[in-house]
Structures are given as structure tokens and as C-alpha cells.
Amino acid sequence: MIVYKSEGSGYGGFLPDFPGCTLWAKPWMHCLPILEVVQTSPDAQSRPLVLVDVNTAFLEKVTERVNITIPRYALAAIDKMAKTRGLFRSAYLARSALMHG
Q: Which of 1, 91, 94 is nearest to 48 (CA)?
């Protein structure tokens, strides 16, 4: 994880091997379980490079069919939002959970 100080706030970090994976915390030590601080690299642009333990389960591409119970009005709202984004219901639900979870 490459650690950086955000303007006027806490610290952030990003994982170059996992595009789109970022995090923010105050203080930065609470971001992830830090295993050790390692040497800086040219990719880090003089920012600290920290070795962290990452659960890669989110990369698994195996799908699973599930049955859920949801109020009809909520299902209609989900379908409407999915349609406006050009997604199927299941893809919309999965993306929403990953973005906000």
C-alpha cells in the first residue's frame, strides 16, 4: 500500500496491484493490519510503501444464485436504478454493495 497525506484530513492509501482499491483513515495506522514498512519504490513517488495483508476474496469470479425477500417498492427502485445504469438487477446490487460496503 502506498500511503499519502490527504489535504486537510487524515491519511489515505492505495494498492497499485488492485486498481480502484483505496482507503482513508485517521490515523493511518488504523487503515489495515500493517505487517511492516518496506523500502520506498519509484512507483510510490517518495511516499511510504507499506506491506499489508489483503483478503483477495473479492477477486473471485465464481457466481452464486441466491433467493432474497424484499419489499415490492424496493425491488421497483432497484430495477429502475439498474436500468438507468444499463445493468441487470444482480449486477446493480453487487456493484452497490461493493461500492458502499
A: 1
